[in-house]
Amino acid sequence: MPKKSRYSGAEKLAIIYEFGQGESSQRSVANKYDVDITTVKRWIHRLKHHGIEGLEDRYQNQSYSAELKLSAVHEFLSGETSQKEIIEKYKILSCRQLRNWIKKYNSHSSFKSTGTGGTSTMTKGRSTDWKERIDIVLYCLANNHDYQGTATQY
Fold it and tell me: Which InterPro entries does this chain map to (predicted)?
């Protein structure tokens, strides 16, 4: 569950307004409210792309489909689009989330749609010898890294 913010959506909006007025420096506004400048800039980004709802506290994590994750990662890795443009296009809440997907993709892990409950691959283990482990790995590689299918098979 996401962490509750110190500031409500209305308070964040007021801070953004004061931040954007230009009467005080951005640093002094950030210090006044004990908030990092990058946090305020993130709030501005969320307001711009998600409306006032983007500033409200979330009581459950955002869900993304496996297809959306893969599309966003491929688009970034193609080098034609920046992280900021991708999170705006796909309505992803942060660059950190996209970076986590890229890291997972680069480690050759598969994406799952979030919020679907998923199934556990290994519920109980059993003893295997060296040759059987090699057979299991070869089967998994031959079947396009289908871990669930491999677990079912063996």
Answer: InsJ-like_HTH, IS150/IS1296_orfA-like, Trp_repressor/repl_initiator, WH-like_DNA-bd_sf
- 63-76 pLDDT, tens digit each: 888 888 989 999 98
For residue 138, name the pLDDT band (cuts at 50, 70, 90): very high
Do the Cβ atoms of 125 and 136 come closer than 8 Å?
no
- What angle in degrees, to the nearest 10, is found between the helix axes of 95-106 and 66-77? 90
Where do the domains of the chain lie? Answer: 9-54, 66-106, 120-154
Give 53's DSSP letter.
Answer: G
Distance of CA 62 to the CA centre of its chain: 9
**How far is it, in rounded angstroms, from Cα 40 to Cα 14?**
11
Give the CA radius of gyration of the chain. 22
Look at residues 5, 99, 107, 80 and name the one whose alpha carbon lies nearest to residue 46: 5
Assign residue 114 a region: left if phi > 0, alpha if psi is -120 to 50, beta otherwise?
A: beta
Is residue 87 within 8 Å of 54, Cβ to Cβ?
no
Amino acid occupying residue 51:
G
Ordered DSSP codes for 68-79: HHHHHHHHHHTT
Which are the contacts of 82, defined by CB distance < 8 A and separation ≥ 6?
none
